[in-house]
Design goal:
The complex is a heterodimer of chains A (296) and B (283). In chain A, 76% of the residues lie in helices and 1% in strands. Chain A has 11 helices and 2 strands. In chain A, a hairpin with a 4-residue loop joins strand 1 and strand 2. Chain A is globular, with a radius of gyration of 23 Å. Chain B has 12 helices and no strands. Chain B is globular, with a radius of gyration of 23 Å. Classes of the chains: A mainly alpha (296), B mainly alpha (283). At the A-B interface, helix 1, helix 3, helix 4, helix 5 and helix 6 of A face helix 1, helix 3, helix 4, helix 5 and helix 6 of B.
């Protein structure tokens, strides 16, 4: 019997080790798979041309990704601009000022907000924000707009990334030792001075990481953006012009991509591009957070 | 009043406003979904599958998508639990604290957690074509399992890290081997965390749309096997909203209400079971 027990342990042990190592390789496998599929188009066109050309005519074999890259940059940066100040103020409030009751309400609300599926954010954008932009904001500037714009997508994305930034920022602020706060308060600093001169100074790298994680989430978000951004394959000229970000491009054209030569390879290249940016952002953010005493 | 006080008051007001703004956004989203969804909701929506001409505004409901979402989310959660539990046990029991391999795998899950689901979708699609197969419930489950795996592993790992090392020493010292320690001591200790992680993953899997777009296909029939394509609620919402007919768009609102209610219920369940089960844990 003892030997059976041993054999059982050996087998489970090695199976579990293999599973662990396989899951450690997952990131490489995904990158490699997408890279191999985009090799076809990378062999046909120089990469600089793919990234900077704005001519997108798959039927004629012209694949310029610039309109989509520009669209992604516009909506992502706008969402960061809107979400970052709000999230950081909220995180500081919850960690330094809020009463127990406020925290008890804020926790579940943030959890639920981050749990709402992205299509539902999209529906909210279509029903509430698109008419707002079309009927009120665009006429104020004296221009016509369909409502499906960079601005709409930026607002929806901002709401989507707020819970993530607040969550990470909160754990960063909590990791700042209370002894520092006590020391500062005991020499007569006000609470805000303590926050500004002691807590924030210590937390800056971690807060930067929280922001980077939020930006990379916004960069890859697909379904909500596809529903509100307008999807016109031209680089946006301003807040009120439509955008066509990279994820929307991939999701919108999966149906026809197999019928046009190079099209599927081009879309897989777009996915690879997305993955590469997100990996770089995430690695940077995680390295910072890891340095700050293992915050997750 | 000196300027220190004024500055403090100013920022306090700003912080309160920011927090209220977030609360308002949450309420606005819920309000919109309920306001538009509730009038369009009917028993027919929930219990019947689309009949002919559903997307032109004729009879039917989204039962196919509700069942599809349930199958897909269950399947994906189970698959990712089957992978995730052994992996986190290896990280916490088999590998030493501070092991380089464990560090690397944790880090790679952190990074994977940030990878957008459209990328998993594209990868799953690539894999599916490579195997020479077509879009089906099975491939949807595989792809979504990959999407939720990092969140699952991180959540379980977080709980397992809290388990004191003495517990492992005690188990080993009475003659249990590492496997027994892992499954009979660690897995049981982490049970509340595992249940919570499973429910959270279920919610994420049910709400995901970008990954299933490529791999699951879409159909009006209720799926009966893994090899068939399946409809899911998020995609049903997306397609219904994309039609030019107001009657069909109404259904998208009702479907969105159903999906939101489902996911909020799961998230509340996750909170409750997490706290209820934890009374059996040795502290």
């Amino acid at each position: 019997m003892a030997s059976l027990r041993k054999i059982k342990e050996r087998l489970t042990c090695s199976a579990m080790m293999m599973l662990t190592i396989a899951s450690g390789l997952l990131l490489f496998v995904i990158s490699l798979g997408l890279l191999l599929r985009s090799r076809e188009i990378l062999e046909m066109k120089p990469i600089m041309e793919l990234l900077t050309s704005s001519v997108w005519k798959p039927g004629r074999g012209e694949f310029g990704f610039w309109p989509f890259i520009a669209g992604s940059l516009w909506v992502t940066l706008l969402s960061a601009l809107l979400a970052v100040p709000v999230s950081l103020l909220c995180a500081v409030y919850l960690s330094e000022y809020a009463s127990r009751t406020v925290r008890a309400i804020a926790g579940p609300v943030l959890d639920m907000l981050s749990g709402i599926p992205s299509v539902v954010f999209g529906i909210w954008g279509v029903l509430a924000l698109v008419p707002l932009v079309k009927d009120y904001i665009a006429p104020m500037t004296g221009r016509f707009s369909s409502g499906y714009t960079v601005l709409t997508a930026g607002i929806v994305l901002a709401v989507m990334i707020v819970p993530l930034i607040v969550h990470v920022a909160l754990s960063v602020l909590r990791s700042v030792g209370n002894d520092l706060r006590d020391a500062s308060l005991s020499v007569g600093a006000t609470r805000w001075q303590t926050v500004k001169l002691v807590v924030l100074r210590k937390a800056v790298p971690g807060l930067a990481a929280a922001v980077v994680l939020g930006i990379s989430r916004a960069f890859g978000e697909t379904m909500a953006v596809i529903m509100v951004a307008g999807n016109v394959a031209k680089a946006p000229k301003g807040l009120l012009s439509p955008a066509y970000p990279l994820p929307a491009l991939i999701a919108n054209n999966y149906g026809e991509m197999l019928s046009i030569p190079l099209y599927d390879s081009a879309l897989m290249f777009a996915a690879f591009l997305l993955l590469a940016v997100v990996i770089i952002f995430n690695i940077a953010a995680r390295l910072i957070l890891k340095k700050m005493e293992n915050i997750r | 009043m000196n300027w220190r006080k004024i500055e403090e008051e100013f920022f306090l007001v700003m912080m309160r406003l920011a927090s209220l703004l977030i609360l308002a956004a949450f309420l606005a989203i819920m309000g919109t979904v309920i306001y538009y969804g509730l009038p369009a909701l009917s028993w027919e929506m929930i219990f019947s599958a689309p009949k002919g001409g559903f997307y032109l505004g004729k009879e039917g409901g989204v039962a196919n998508a509700i069942v599809g979402t349930f199958y897909l989310a269950c399947g994906a959660t189970i698959v990712s639990l089957i992978i995730g539990l052994p992996v986190t046990l290896v990280l916490n029991v088999f590998l030493k604290r501070g092991s380089k391999l464990a560090e690397f795998i944790r880090f790679s899950f952190d990074v994977l957690w940030g990878v957008p689901s459209i990328v998993y979708g594209a990868f799953g699609f690539t894999l599916m074509l490579y195997m020479g197969m077509r879009a089906s419930l099975l491939w949807g489950i595989i792809t979504v399992a990959l999407v939720v795996l990092p969140a699952m592993c991180r959540a379980i790992d977080e709980v397992m890290r809290m388990i004191p090392g003495e517990l492992q020493d005690a188990s080993l010292s009475v003659g249990a081997n590492k496997c027994e320690t892992a499954f009979k001591v660690f897995a049981r200790q982490a049970l509340p965390g595992i249940v919570t992680a499973t429910l959270i993953s279920f919610g994420r899997a049910a709400g995901d749309a970008a990954a299933v777009l490529f791999t699951t296909g879409f159909t009006d029939a209720v799926p009966t096997s893994l090899a068939e394509p399946a409809a899911t609620l998020p995609l049903a919402i997306f397609f219904q909203l994309g039609t030019p007919f107001p009657e069909v768009q109404q259904r998208a609102y009702a479907s969105a209400l159903i999906l939101t209610a489902l996911i909020l219920l799961v998230s509340i369940a996750a909170r409750l079971t997490g706290s209820r089960l934890s009374k059996y844990v040795i502290k």
